[in-house]
Amino acid sequence: MAVAYLFPGQGAQDPALGPVVRERIPELFDLATELIGCDPFPVCGESTRYAQPAIVLSSLALWQDLAPLAGDALAFAGHSLGELGALCAAGALTQRDAVELAVLRGELMARSGEERGESTMLAVLKGTIEDAARLAEDFGLHVANDNAPGQVVIAGAVDAVTQARGAARERGLRAIELDVAGAFHTPFMDGAREPFAERLTQVEFSTPAVPVISGLTARPFTDPRAELAEAITAPVRWREVMLTLHGMSIGRYVDVGPGTVLEKLVERNLEVAVA
């Protein structure tokens, strides 16, 4: 049976996985700690600058259990930050580069959010992508994640998000403000894109063993340097990624972790069970 392995992004951090990472991939843990200036796990809930490296380290540590059994992999995909883990698992990116990029990405996005002022994200539940896009447009916000039918995230300035949340109720939509300090995957992250793109020019990418589906295009990566950089300010097209994988006749989906967020999104998108 053809299998797709999925790597989660922001929000999947788990401080309890610190000891697991330290035991399984000590060199990478030490690398991240040195680059950041501290162990990211105890503080991973405080800022994306700590959450992003903690998530990638966790995924790489958990992947060690799955890699020997992954001969049936037909595709990989990662949600936002998770693309670094997916490219790594597919053999397109070294583990060291994945960790270094995660540290830099987290720092740049945290700094960009701080420089642009208070911003956040709003999950719009029920309704269609068109309903969420219309709500975003009406309040000067941006679609950030198209995760699944009835689950779209919009983002922008805090005041505008607050207004949009009230309007969503009036329109029969359910809206939940997310506990994040930044409007990720929107123009609010412009300050992070160029320096991240510059760093990516120094990274060597190999041809992956099997396709890695990009959240930017919902198609296999063809130019990871350009696509990873552009994705910082562009929406995550996860619903379409799921449809692409479904079109590849994937019969089983494995959420590598940490967490089970992507497992739930697979079920919501495709109404299939997840291993």
UniProtKB/TrEMBL annotation:
A cellular-component GO term for this protein: cytosol
Keyword Transmembrane assigned: no
Keywords assigned by UniProt, alphabetized: Acyltransferase, Transferase
Gene Ontology annotations of biological process type: fatty acid biosynthetic process
GO terms assigned for molecular function: [acyl-carrier-protein] S-malonyltransferase activity
Catalytic activity: holo-[ACP] + malonyl-CoA = malonyl-[ACP] + CoA
Protein's name according to its UniProt entry: [acyl-carrier-protein] S-malonyltransferase
Organism per entry: freshwater metagenome
Lineage: unclassified sequences, metagenomes, ecological metagenomes
